[in-house]
Task: inverse folding
């Protein structure tokens, strides 16, 4: 019997949903796409996890835009905190996978 796969759900704050577009020209739908595309690298963000567990994701959109995303998990949903294009150093790290 195949393993039961939970669908990925996202929780968007109404103000935060468009903030990444205004600051970094990254659409909220692009943020969601990286969690379905491979490779996806995630790390625990020890530096910013004092109040809640935060994670960093390195991934790519359906149009191959490479993104760096900071997120948390709330009520089993991914909540994006910030998103931007990967820096050159981050791209090198991501592409090693």
Result:
């Amino acid at each position: 019997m195949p393993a039961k796969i939970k669908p990925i759900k996202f929780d968007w704050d109404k103000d935060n949903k468009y903030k990444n577009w205004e600051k970094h020209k990254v659409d909220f739908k692009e943020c969601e796409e990286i969690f379905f595309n491979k490779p996806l690298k995630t790390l625990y963000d020890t530096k910013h996890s004092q109040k809640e567990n935060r994670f960093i994701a390195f991934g790519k959109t359906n149009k191959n835009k490479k993104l760096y995303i900071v997120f948390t998990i709330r009520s089993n949903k991914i909540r994006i905190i910030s998103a931007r294009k990967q820096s050159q150093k981050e791209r090198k790290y991501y592409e090693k996978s």
